[in-house]
Amino acid sequence: MAYQKLQVGLAADVITSDTIDIPLPSSENITGATTSTAASKLNDTNVDFTAIQGLHDGAIVVNTDTQTIATVTAVDSAHVLSLSADIFADLLFNENYIIYLDPTANHSEGCLLWVDQAAAVKVKTVSGSIVTYQGISAGTFLPVQVIRVYTTGTTAALNLIANW
Question: Do 94 and 110 belong to one domain?
Fold first, then answer.
């Protein structure tokens, strides 16, 4: 009997969100560290956001220190972006971030999910279907092409890895 061999070349930790898709790590991105904090803002005096081609509303921002996610809602100035959530709320500066310029880069093929524990996982597939998989066993690959994992409807404290 033949068996399916899973071969992936790229993987990333998944941050669940009811509104934001899983960013594709190999897509064009910008990295940096905050230089000050303000509510729902990304402040970085070392970057000129107005000079970055392709940076616009909807770009995905990940705080890699806290594993939180938001989208750009406006380019306020050369050094400040408005965000959809307050992901840089810590009073400590120099929180690291990645900005994924193309929020739809994952849409053509989606990813397969690895699930670390018995769980329920609510996902959006590349075709736009929204479904909840119940009773997934620990250490399982979910063989569905996924573009988003929802916070609501997914088991809390679940560690998921996206695989492309």
Answer: no
Residue 148: strand, helix, or coil: strand
Structure tokens at 133: 């998989």
Find how far residue 98's CA is from the centre of its chain.
10
Sheet holding 140-149, edge to edge: 11-13, 160-163, 111-115, 140-149, 119-125, 130-136
CA distance linking residue 12 with residue 151, whole number of Å? 17
Contact (CB, 8 A) for 110 and 4: no
**Do you know the residue count of the chain?**
164
Residue 1 inside a domain? The answer is no
Phi, psi of 6 (to 5 degrees): -85, 120
Averaged pLDDT, groups of 10, the chain, 164 residues long: 65 96 94 92 96 96 96 98 92 87 91 95 97 96 95 94 94
The CA distance from 159 to 117, in Å, is 8
CB–CB of 71/42 below 8 Å? no
Residue with tokens 């970085």: 44
Domain that holds residue 147: 11-20+106-163
- The structure's pTM equals 0.91
**Tokens describing residue 40:** 């729902």
